[in-house]
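User: Working on a comparison across species. This one is SDR family oxidoreductase from Pseudomonas ekonensis. Can you predict its structure so I can line it up against the others?
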Amino acid sequence: MNSPKSQGTALVTGASSGIGAVYAQRLAARGFDLLLVARDQERLESAAVRLRGAHGVQVEVLKADLTQQADVQKIEQRLRNDAGISLLVNNAGVGANGSLADADPEQLERLIQLNITAVTRLASAAAAAFVKAGRGTIVNIASVVALFPERFNATYSASKAYVLSLSQSLNAELDGTGVKVQAVLPGVTRTEIWERSGIDASGIPDEMIMEAGEMVDASLAGLDQGELVTIPSLPDAGEWQAFVAARLVMAPNLSHRSAAGRYK
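Assistant: Here's the predicted structure for SDR family oxidoreductase from Pseudomonas ekonensis:
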């Protein structure tokens, strides 16, 4: 049961630190009860005590490793069966260091499981429950490298391009159901993901690094404005609109009976 005057329950993955922890704080301040998911039970419990005291909301913690199928299934079932959940923040993710040619196959499997498989399965479970309820919001955290993959390594960039594409397709599928979808494309954000991935971020210019709090505040503002895609660093929304328009210009010519003349 939700708190009196609750906005419903927000399920936030990767909630023990960084972007996920900030989302938990901001959503609690907006009146959401919370279901916080991450691997670090101690951190989750500590955050829960702070958030209950500061905002008077209900906070439940659920330890889960979303690279493990059994744990993903546990969260899926909660999304499908808990009618109080009205918001999913699909935030948990991991980076990768080095080129695809030099990558550790097991590291690649973990990245794909967390950044792609878990995100997809949780979004699917949330969509099914939210459509049934006629309301709900799915927020998927992607990255600007989805638009500029040459600037980062292949696996991470491709995983975030998947998240963007998934969000766009899912939004079209959910049209008219009352369910909202948002893809958030942060640039470089000051979180622990760099250290955990073994990436040396010391060479990144400071003017390119956004604090997690500012990133989340911008993302929530974009959600409030009804954006499907939110790019917190982008000053001119017209640039994104032009990007989308250029894609749509190609649409009528992407599938024809005959190959284009330039290939003959």
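For your comparison, note: The domain at 9-237 is CATH 3.40.50.720 (Rossmann fold).

User: Helpful, thanks.
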